[in-house]
């Protein structure tokens, strides 16, 4: 395994550079995925860094150029370029996902400026992180949802979650959430 994946200094550096680049070209962004859990009181091993962005056509090449200049190596994503950019930075995989639906666009409107592993950056709100993970419903994501709810139970906007669960047709998943939130 690539040791770069587990180097917290490299992860911090990547997040700081990406935050600076996104801000420099006015790209709305939020850190999502496993690393963002730290901002909501949790931590777990993760193998990549995930960001959600809204990028205009005229910004896309500028973004790619700035990433290349900062030693982010592009990785082909087999036809997924419309939805995602993937890079390697000193052995760390970086996934930059395009906000293309109502949930992801709304998540960027609700992002929160917080510290994550010592770097001040925008993070998806706890509710939006729960919804993004619930929609994926992979075993690790469900574990993250349970932990996020348990750790943030007193501050979660339940009505917001309820509205989006209905809109996303995640009613079965909502039953699980209701039990945890009680």
Produce a short descriptive summary.
This protein has helices spanning about 10-25, 55-70, 100-110, 125-135, 140-150, 160-165, 170-180; strands at about 30, 50-55, 75, 85-90, 90-100, 110-115, 120-125. The protein is of the alpha+beta class. It has two domains: about 1-125, Beta Polymerase, domain 2 (2-Layer Sandwich); about 125-180.
What does this structure look like?
With 182 residues, this protein is of the alpha+beta class. The chain has 2 domains: 1-124, Beta Polymerase, domain 2 (2-Layer Sandwich); 125-182. It is 46% helix and 20% strand. It is built from 7 helices and 7 strands, in the order H-E-E-H-E-E-E-H-E-E-H-H-H-H. The chain has helices at 8-24, 57-69, 102-109, 126-136, 139-152, 158-167, 171-181; strands spanning 29-32, 48-53, 73-75, 84-89, 92-98, 112-116, 119-123. It has a 5-stranded mixed β-sheet with strand order 1-2-5-4-3. A two-stranded antiparallel sheet has the order 6-7. Helix 3 (102-109) runs antiparallel to helix 4 (126-136). The protein is globular, with a radius of gyration of 16 Å. Residues 1-5 have low confidence and may be disordered.
């Amino acid at each position: 395994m690539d040791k770069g994946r587990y180097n917290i200094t490299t992860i911090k550096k990547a997040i700081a550079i990406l935050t600076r680049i996104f801000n420099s070209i006015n790209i709305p962004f939020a850190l999502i995925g496993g690393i963002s859990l730290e901002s909501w009181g949790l931590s777990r091993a993760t193998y990549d860094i995930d960001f959600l962005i809204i990028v205009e056509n005229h910004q896309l090449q500028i973004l790619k150029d700035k990433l290349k200049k900062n030693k982010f190596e592009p990785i082909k994503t087999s036809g997924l370029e419309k939805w995602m950019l993937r890079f390697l930075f000193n052995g760390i995989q970086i996934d930059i996902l395009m906000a293309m639906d109502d949930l992801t666009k709304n998540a960027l409107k609700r992002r929160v400026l917080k510290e994550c592993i010592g770097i001040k950056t925008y993070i998806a709100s706890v509710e939006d992180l729960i919804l993004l993970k619930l929609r994926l419903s992979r075993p690790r994501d469900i574990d993250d949802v349970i932990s996020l709810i348990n750790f943030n139970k007193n501050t979660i906007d339940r009505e917001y979650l309820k509205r989006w669960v209905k809109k996303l047709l995640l009613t079965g998943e909502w039953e699980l959430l209701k039990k945890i939130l009680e």
